[in-house]
Specification:
By secondary structure, this protein is of the alpha+beta class. The protein is 29% helix and 29% strand. Helix 1 links the parallel strand 1 and strand 2. The longest helix has 18 residues. The chain is globular, with a radius of gyration of 20 Å.
Length: 342
Amino acid sequence: MRIAVLEAVCAGLCGENPPPSLLAEGLAMWRALIEDLLLNPQVTIETVVDDRWFAMTPSLSRVHAWRVSDVTESMTCWQNCLDDTEATWIIAPECDGLLQQLVEMLPPSHRSWNASPEAIALCADKLALAQHLARHSVATIPTVSETWQSPPHFDEDSKFVIKPRDGAGSQLVRRIADQAAWKNSRQEYRGAGDPPAIRQPFIPGTPLSIAGWFDRNGVQWFPVAEQVLGEDFVYCGGVIAARVDDEAHATVQRLVTVAVATIPGLQGYVGFDVLLPERRLDTPVLVEINPRLTTSCLGIRRLCRGDWLASLMTDPSKPLEWHTDRRIEFTSQGVVREVPLS
């Protein structure tokens, strides 16, 4: 099978100076995906890589990398990849409609492991997704548009989060504890061209994620992962399986199962960000949906007994098996290590 693989940051489609965090995560996912796909000896890969990062291309047989120097050349070479292959896997941020546009380019005859353009559009719009989940009685964080007309009301218990309505990673995500912080955030957004923003109450808790594999037979869920976040919610990596009890694992899976039943068009690998509130009487809430490969795949591939991706692509009805005597820690830079259960 000839597969076209595109990671948008590595291909130079995310600007002259992409945020270092996006580049690091993109490179890590891109390399892992190519290595896992090539475990099938029948697979050959076409991909596109910017000159700046060509030295990081996996030096593997059965990989042809188109070397590009600008966006126009990148898109031309990507079209050549599509012409020469029969299947496609795209990794790209949902922001600015990039992932949706790349999926819409795919030839009808191509096999794709990406969600439909409609599902991508819904998941990319954080306000629309929150409203959709609320209409379907799926627990999520109350979300409103940030109009910047007046600061929120603060008391000693109220804190807020402001984030771009259409954004990736932790760019411009800020925790707001007082009016001074709100005004500083306002200035940051002005300096960034005033992208639409949303406001959410800050809920203390444990950030988790769960990913699943979607195909016409349904969904196979992977173990719940624990997210490691730095200041201003900068994503630093994670731990899989998460250090929470079995009841929390089951509750998270039930939550996302209800959510996906309301969103047609999810396909292939899809990731979900979930918050387990500090007050254990509160239920987990679904924060975001990522209709693409996520950095958690770095841990999933190591926790799985066997070749996870090859198994899913050849026989998705067969449940994956997982190591139960260890956890996997992974960073957003692509560093992965096994740790014994404590």
